[in-house]
Amino acid sequence: MSNFLQEFEDERKTSGRKKLGEKCGVFGVYGHPEASTMVALGLHALQHRGQEASGIVSYDGDNFYSKRALGLVDQTFNQKDVIDRLKGYLAVGHNRYATTGETLYRNIQPLYADLALGGFALGQNGNLTNARTIRQELVEHGALFQSTTDTEVFIHLVAASRKPTIHERLAEAMQQAEGGYSIVACAEDTLIGARDKHGIRPLALGKLNDSWFLASETCAFDIISAEFVREIEPGEMVVINKNGIKSYFPHKGNPKRFCIFEYIYFARPDSFMENRSVYEMRKAIGAELAKESPVENADLVVPVPDSGIPSAIGYAEAAKLPFELGIIRNHYVGRTFIEPTDQIRHLGVKLKHNANRAYLEDKIVILVDDSIVRGTTSRKIVDMVRQAGAKEVHVRISSPPTKHSCFYGIDTPSSEELLANSHDVDEICKIIHADSLAYVTTDGLYKALGEVKRNGEDRKFCDACFTGDYPVRLTDLLDQKMSKRVTELG
Hints:
It contains 20 helices and 25 strands. It has 490 residues and is an alpha+beta fold. The protein has two domains: 3-257, Aminohydrolase, N-terminal nucleophile (Ntn) domain (Glutamine Phosphoribosylpyrophosphate, subunit 1, domain 1, 4-Layer Sandwich), CATH 3.60.20.10; 277-459, Rossmann fold, CATH 3.40.50.2020. The strands form seven sheets. A seven-stranded antiparallel β-sheet has the order 4-3-5-2-11-10-12. Strands 6-7-8-9-13-14 form a six-stranded antiparallel β-sheet, covered by helices on one side. The protein has a four-stranded parallel β-sheet with strand order 18-21-22-24, with helices on both faces. Helix 6 (151-160) packs across helix 7 (166-176), helix 10 packs across helix 11 and helix 10 packs across helix 18 (442-448). The chain is globular, with a radius of gyration of 23 Å. The chain starts with a helix and ends with a helix.
């Protein structure tokens, strides 16, 4: 196994994350005199998609400028002199949520390279499922990789291409790359945005006066008062320069399989995706969950903040029950907070959540959350609600059981670490100490999103984390398993 894939697998098994994590967010600007400022604001709006590092590359017509650093956007781009050094009318930016190996400076995006056609910078949201295979082929032909991120595969494919223009080279790279991804890239006087052939990862186009924008989510347009124009289509590439905007389709005729978990958890609720309000979709999922799994004699509905709030509102409205913030979240606890000793490690959940006893005592509580991963956090929250005096705690989850790992840009544990992969609902209910547990069904989820669930390639979403139906071949994983099998047989 290559170091690249080994680091990927080791991270899955050792990260210890109790919630799922989105990999990255991307943002691009063309034709704005303060392009880097616009990108910094856009990345701030997309901070939820990646908190480990951020970067911006800009172009002023003569030179490229770059700033990348570990940490949050406002820690890196909070000084005027930093932004002033990122000159130009063209810029791309990236928030990183690492899923391969350590969070290293060399993995911070956008990645930049001087190519035969000039400077080129690229940032990606997603994962390539054949990155290891392509990487090995490129290395055998003399390529020198500087990072462990699969995004660098795109850089090398573009560099190795003999096509006459940068967008044709990137189109050729897209035809070789498998997986789920959205990318923003900039070359000299050109901004490029593209999505994988199934549109698994999101990317949107915006406009403000004569300036064009690309972003992972529409909420990033709101912060700069830009107009949302449309989604970039699955398999589409848009090329923006002084001649205007042109659209190309390196991939054609592939079924759309947009990531369904964007609606459940990852996207900001004030975003629109695939012409749907994320907030409205989450409320609709909660309403469907209430119809499928009511609780007799319940007193109130309580969300697990923050991602459980819209679904809990939908559940409460459908069930005609009071909605209350029975759990209060401390928003000032960062992801890097140190738990110094084993003796207080069990208190970890209270660093972020605390029970609102006045609304829980002597109540039959319906607790609504978006997912259960390992079950550790769910158990602690259920116990906390009980300790606050709740008579009964009934857990309702606004997604089907998460049984399978994602290989398209969402940071999930390995399948064997997912609680639902090896335990049924009754067993999980006991593990998390709940009086009852129910998930929304896959059919109910599709119904809430306004779709009729169908079999095979007609299905409009990627729901592999629930069903194991992966729309893109897992080339690296399959090759790894085959290699291991051959070794064992030999």
